[in-house]
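Page 47, continued from p. 46.
Same chain as before, 979 aa.
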Amino acid sequence: MPLLEPKPDALRPGDPGRSPLPDRLADLTAHGTPTPLREELQAVFGPEKVLWQVSDLVRYASDASPYRFVPQVVLVPEDVDDVSAILSFAHGKGREVVFRAAGTSLNGQAQGEDILVDVRRHWEGVEVLDGGARVRVRPGTTVARVNAALARHGRVLGPDPASAAACTVGGVVANNASGMTAGTTRNAYRTMASVTVVLPSGTVVDTGDPAADDELLRAEPKLCEALLTLKAEIEADPELTARIRAKHRIKNTNGYRLDAFLDGRTPAGILRGLMVGSQGTLGFVAEAVFRTLPLDRAVSTGLLLFPSLPAAAAAVPLLAGAGAGAVELMDGNTLRASVRVAGVPADWAELPRECAALLVELRAPDGAALEAQEWAVAEVLDTLDLVAPVPSVSNAFTRDPAAIGRLWTARKAFVTAVGGSRPTGTTLVTEDFAVPPERLAEACEALLALQTAHGFDAAVAGHAAHGNLHFLLAFDPADPADVERYAAFMEAFCRMTVERFDGSLKAEHATGRNIAPFLELEWGAKAADLMWRTKQALDPDGVLAPRIVLDRDPRGHLRGLKSVPAVDPLTDPCIECGLCEPVCPSRDLTTTPRQRIVLRREMARQPAGSRVETALAATYGYEAVDTCAADGSCQAACPVGIDTGALMKRLRHARHTPREERAAALAARHFGTAEAAARRALTASHQAGRLAGDRLPQAVTGALRRVVRPDLVPEWLPELPGAAAAALPATRRDGAAAVYYPACVNRIFGGPAGQRGPSLPEAVVALSERAGLPVWIPGDVRGTCCATLWSSKGYEEAAAVAADRIVEAAWGWTEGGRLPLVVDASSCTLGLERDVAPYLGDRNRELHGELTVLDATVWAADRLLPLLTVRRRVPSAVVHPTCAARRLGAEDRLTALARACADEVVVPDDAGCCAFAGDRGLLHRELTEAATAREAAEVTARPFDAHLSANRMCEIGMEHATGRRYHSVLLELERATRP
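Result:
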């Protein structure tokens, strides 16, 4: 063990005297998967595909639902053969299997108690067909990723769930998720042309293959006979046929799609329809082909406020009749809670509880068609009783993309924003039902009365144009009385929906666990029996997802309710929705933000010092704390702005010894010396490399890492550049338009190996001079730092030293904020603009507020580029947007500068955080390699003439990932505009 390896005790959460919770893991699970099962699976699939530690089991035990079921083992298959082998193993051993992709499901469909199969990690892929008219997708691909590929062809998927950035296509098919505009005509059932299925028996069927029926008959004759028998039985019953058709005229994802027996002519055709909405209980969707829809790019959106929920509901058919593509309902509680979401007006918190809003969107192929729609809607608006109780509400439509984006962010954050404001310790239930659209207003009134009668102050939203309502309930699963209150409400709600409105108990979230006991109530005994027989035909041994969709236990929906212990105020609002996961750099290496929180919650459920808590704490250091890039991507993706990275930095601090904190503070006070030493070390390492190759510096740093601690000693990478020049460019203060602050990373590291031309500081000075807006580099910038170096590692005293020093210096350099401060590394810009604030004293916080900090790309794009003449361009460039640029809202400046320098500019669809995170990629190179794998595959698939970014460490990370030399877009701009 390294000499300075931290003790894990600092990672144990909560009060040592806390009481354990009833749903905690038993001590016998501390060793993870039972040894016989683990060894058997490893022998069949290989150790790398079997996740067995208790931390693995816990992090896969939660999804966005109120349930928690801990698997015995987690398998990570790579291809269809692996899936078939898993099912064969389960049949032979009498085991059960549940498939899990994104884990954004709201009803427990992604949880299992035996073998859980991760079908996200190795199951991404998009192939655009027929010029975009069709698209072939693998199940682990997010909806947003598919639409990014289709957008270039002017096409889009039909299903548009609010969680599109995180939910995967496999889940969309399995749940028949629809969304804002899909309704009953654009959902997966209507737009999926074919599907490749692995049946519970292990048989693989591609329903799009012309020979599919012949092959299916040869492999599964009993299944084909059973499907055709069920089809004949349904078609022979006119009353049942009419009932099935009627149930699917409104949105309905409760139970199996019995209309598949009416719509499919052959067993393969029936199977295609049955797989939609089957929730992983009938087979595994290995691939799907969709018919796509036109992407109407002309958009106008308005938020209309009404005095009450029924008043808003009454206006829905009028707006839909005028051509509105989306009419989204939000009640007063939803509107008030959404102020937690970035960009939502603060005065929404003052809106009356009884009010409600409709978010109305118009879409058209061009401006003229959109204007016609706007006129039609304007006539409707004249007849409505709208209110405007706060200044930000105008009841007007806008075509501004930024304003439209903010409105939709508020709507899509419904579950997380409202759930994030629930009382600490309560769990969240998200219900989703549909009624005939013409009865929406009546259903709203009935729902409100029912909630009041059972003591729930719930929030309501929904896809109003389709009669689809969502509402949230919070209760304490550790309180038996509260559970019974919830149970009574569910019984009354289900009966109201079915008996009064003949509605569907699940419109788009699928049956899952919490509506399975009420399936027969909605469908009746005859249809429910057909569903059980369908399950028996396809999965006679009950291998797949038991108790999901079909459950004869009338209290099955009350089983497995999860406690949500308080762990930290920063992360307690988390509802474990998983929207953070697609942007997390460590998602394919160790843990995600959701999983980091889930693991701490399990530790908090345990009695202090239990075997499970000890086992989780022992692995948490590397799996959660060390491999977190702390780049803020999760905060940007989280609708309520939870920054799990901030918690990880706090835990890094908690692991430091007082001696380590003092040493870091000393280094911060003498940073000029440290900066010079780093340049000398780089020079010496390169000299050693030239004499003995990269193996010598790699061997030296490797030995130090083993002896000291990997998280303290950087690893040598061949891509590391030489040292930057000791001298910065000479500039003058007189006449300067801005103060230029070369970040410490650009004062230490030089440009790419073999780079000809100016250094980055020389390029920024030259560009500014060329544009007639000269910059001044203060003579005392050396020895200063934006404090990110220290804060990212949790060295709080060092961060405070660096923060106070840079703010005091910058205030003087800029003449009290009169001049802007231009910073040439986006992460340092972010650090100086925002992240430095918590480490400042009161006086320096005031000084900081007077500063104007600009990223160099913003300075160049907004101020310099209009004054420059582009004289030469490269044919093509690929851009790596930094996560800091995204958080600063400056990503568009980076691409604008690239477009000035290149005829073709490509931003990879899979571009994300490179996880180099200052020096994190030198401490844990495996983190950067995992984070950049998808983007690197896109970049290396074709040649580019330039590889551009806006942060030196990100450029090093991308060079390491791709083997291509990345450099600053400002260097490329200097070359493009050089006389």
